[in-house]
Amino acid sequence: MRFNYQAMVEGNQRPYIIAELGANHNGDMELAKTLIKTAKECGADAVKLQSWTVDDLFSKKKYEDNYFLGDDYRNRTDYSLKTVMEAYAVNKEQHFMLQKYCEELDIDFVSTPFSMAGADMLVDELHVPYLKIASLDVDNIPFLRHVGSKGVPVVISTGLTGMDDVCAAVRALEEGGCHEIVILHCVSMYPPKDEQVNLNNIDMYNMVFDYPVGYSDHTIGTVAPIMSIAKNVCIIEKHFTMDKNMEGWDHKVSADPAELKAICDAARQGYTMLGNYHKVVVEDQNRRDEFKRSIVAKHDMPAGHVLTFEDLDYKRPGTGISPKYYEALIGRELKHDVKYDDIFTWGDF
């Protein structure tokens, strides 16, 4: 399934699944291709990279402090933050190569830009179907206005911030000219505690915004993304790795192939199970009759007997007169004898 914003607005398709590669390729393009191929085999609709240069995210002081967010690198002396950023960055040529590989596999290629130049490259040169904005840029108003001006839909995660900033981010995108926005509920903890996941926030977003709502997941396992299907989300985004034990930033909180497949399968089956807002009887009529009850004779009664409430009982199968019509039988005269447990029909009166 390819990205279709209008279908998301109309709510008439299953969730669109984004396998977030992020930096889980560890700078190895062959590993990146393996991740893409496996994501496709698992049933994902898109794979997403992160597009940065060494100068896009961290200041000179941050590099000098050499502070790592990822536990795998913290307190190590054989790596520096700048070295890792350089190793994990995907250059322009690699973007084109991976995009071409995605086209061959018929899976959407998208990425998160971390600069205006990155957004320009993704839209103007790679012609991505939409831009995905990370939670860290929810309050980056100049950047959001620029992103909004690019003429493509924008999917934005909303972790790390309160409702005021989410509203301001949406306004900034609109001011830039974007009116095709998808808002992703997100908790930017790696991983969050169960009580922090707050899937009910999806309902709140649906009430506040006139835009489709999805879910970007950072929990361990599959429970949260699968539960989000019942919230009728239009997108589920999940970090993806070939091996949770690999060295790197997000492997431990990422889905492995078995988990990603479980999420993709649940998205398809779960969406079908949601159905609609109309109560309909879908059971086979004959089977339904076997389960329901009919009005039956509580004892033997002769012809001419006038029925009372005490003459009636209610038993399976439901092939006779429904118990809901019991009052219509009271006071009626029998045309012929009936025996105990005979199922009444309208022809008996």
From TrEMBL:
- Give every AFP-like domain span: 294-349
- Spell out the InterPro entries in the cross-references: AFP_Neu5c_C_sf, Aldolase_TIM, PseI-like, PseI/NeuA/B-like_N, SAF, SAF_AFP_Neu5Ac, SAF_PseI/NeuA/NeuB
What is a biological process (GO) this protein takes part in?
carbohydrate biosynthetic process
**What would you give as a GO molecular function for this chain, any one?**
N-acylneuraminate-9-phosphate synthase activity
Q: Which CDD domains match?
A: SAF_NeuB_like
PANTHER family of this UniProt entry? N-ACETYLNEURAMINATE SYNTHASE, SIALIC ACID SYNTHASE
| Record-given protein name | N-acetylneuraminate synthase
Its lineage reads: Bacteria, Bacillati, Bacillota, Clostridia, Lachnospirales
